[in-house]
Amino acid sequence: MAITEKEIQLYIWGLKDQWVNLIQPVKFPEPNYFNEEEYDIYSLNPRQAFLNSAYNRLTELDQYVRSSDLIGCEVHLKKDFDSTIRADLLCCSEGTGGFGIIEIKKSAQTERQAYTELLGYGNHIHGLFPGMSTEDLVYILISPMQERIVREATLLSLLKDEKPVYCLIPKWQNNDINTLILEPWIPEENDISQLSNAMFYDTPYLLDNFLLN
Q: Is the model more confident about 70 or about 32?
């Protein structure tokens, strides 16, 4: 029988004191031009600038997540005159304010829903605590990251919306939940290139590229 999202959620919660041990080591790459002794940041093209920004942001978020503790599972978020929603997991990191909201989607078929739910949780919490800033919430998505629209939404959140989004890819062997590991998602340069092309090239280029894809 295939592993369910609920099983992943409860397994991680069961390891709440050492859940970060599931997260595999990662080193976000530095673009080749960083190997030079000096470079002029103003001479970078959009793809290079986006790549730099995305990797720096993800490095910071990786440090946050690895220092976090789980504080809630299936957390009911209630607000007067509004429907109750449930966050899969909540975490916090010592020495920082706010929360990390963890959403689990185990397949490409369901991962498109993740952003609607994550941002819904975030808006709900901001409504409960109006003084919170965008930096007080970290969005953590556990998902295969197979859908291009999900990868691009993550990059746009990091680069344009300034919402802290960190993604982990769940992997296991032989449908055994005890083999679960979480691999940090590293954006590919192709995803960055498509995004920078979409934002900086003219409309005919975008239309041709859209039709080809």
A: 70
